Amino acid sequence: MQLGRVIGRVWASVKNPGLTGQRLLIVQPVKADLSPTGKSIVCTDCTGAGAGEIIYWVRGREASFPFTPADVASDATIVGIVDEINTGKKKDPS
Amino acid sequence: MQLGRVIGRVWASVKNPGLTGQRLLIVQPVKADLSPTGKSIVCTDCTGAGAGEIIYWVRGREASFPFTPADVASDATIVGIVDEINTGKKKDPS
Amino acid sequence: MQLGRVIGRVWASVKNPGLTGQRLLIVQPVKADLSPTGKSIVCTDCTGAGAGEIIYWVRGREASFPFTPADVASDATIVGIVDEINTGKKKDPS
Amino acid sequence: MQLGRVIGRVWASVKNPGLTGQRLLIVQPVKADLSPTGKSIVCTDCTGAGAGEIIYWVRGREASFPFTPADVASDATIVGIVDEINTGKKKDPS
Amino acid sequence: MQLGRVIGRVWASVKNPGLTGQRLLIVQPVKADLSPTGKSIVCTDCTGAGAGEIIYWVRGREASFPFTPADVASDATIVGIVDEINTGKKKDPS
Question: What ipTM was assigned to the predicted interfaces of this complex?
Answer without folding.
Answer: 0.86
